[in-house]
Amino acid sequence: MSFKDGKPISGLAKTVRAVEANGQNQIGFESRLKVCAANWKLNKSPKESLKFIESLNALGTPEELRHLWIFPPATSWSVFSEHPGLCWGGQNVHTQSHGAFTGENSLGVLAEMGGQCLLVGHSERRHFFGETIADTKIKVIEALKQNLTPILCVGETLKERESGQTGQVLEEQLRPFLSLSDAGDRDAETTKKLCQFKNWLVAYEPVWAIGTGLVATLEQVDEAHKFIQDLFKKKADRPEPHLLENASSDRVSGTAREEPSSQTWLKTEAPGTIRVLYGGSVKIDNIASLSQLESVSGFLIGGASLTPESLLGCLRNTALTKQQ
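Above: the chain sequence. Below: its structure as C-alpha cells.
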C-alpha cells in the first residue's frame, strides 16, 4: 500500500446534529457508539477529577459510560479507584512493577487500584522521554499478564509522511507484535491474548496531528488503519493451536481476577485482526465523519476530553454513522 502524498488539512466536517427518536434519529443515521479513550495528559488535580466524574455520571447514560475509557494523571488514580463503574487506566508505567526507579509509576499498583487499561508508546513518551520499541513490547506483555488492556500507540512524523516512510515507520513500531509464535518472555496465556486480538488495541496517531489542530483526511486515516490491520492479517505468524490449549484467559499469576469492563467491550465481537483507534486533534466537529470509516474502531482524544460535555458530545457523535 502506498500512502497519499500531500500536507494534512484541518477540519474534516461540520458537526452533525440530530434528534434521537426511538433509537433512530431523524436524518437517516443509525446509532452505534464507538469507544472514546480520554487522554488527559498532565491535566486535572484530584479535586478536578472528582468533579469531572460526578458531572459525567450525572450527564451520561450507563451505556454511554461503558464506551468511555479515561486516562488521568497518576495523581488522580486514587480518585478513580473509588468509582469502579468507570473504565480508567494509566498513561504510562515503568517496565518493572517495583524497584529503584525514582519518579516512575508501577503497573502492579495500577492493577491493584482497579485500573483496567494502559496507554503504551504514546508519541510524547517516545519523542520527549526516549521510550523505545523494546520498551513498548515489555509494557504490552506485562499489562496483559496483569489482565489489563493495553493500547499501543503508533504513528509517523510529518517529515516521515512527506518522505514516503509512513508504512515503514508503522511496521517497525509494530514488528515486536507480529512474531507471535516467538514466545520469548511470554507465557502461553499472554501469547494467546496477543493472538486473539481481543485483549489489546492499537491507536494510530500521526504525530503531526497531535495537539496541532491538524487532522488527517478520511483517506489518510483509512489507509493507515487498513495498513496496520493488513500487517496482522498477512505478516503476523501464529503458534500451533496445541501450544495454547492449556492457556487460561481469566487467570493471572494463579489468581482469578474479574474481567475488566474494557475487555467486556472488546469481546463483544471476534475480530479477525487488531482493532485500531484514531487519535490526533479529534474533536466534536470531526469525529462523526471519522466514525463513518469501518477501519476505525474508536478514538483516542486529548483536549476535547477535558470537559464532560465535550467528551460526551464526541461519544454521541460517533453514533452518527450513515445507514447503507
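The longest helix spans residues 218-234.
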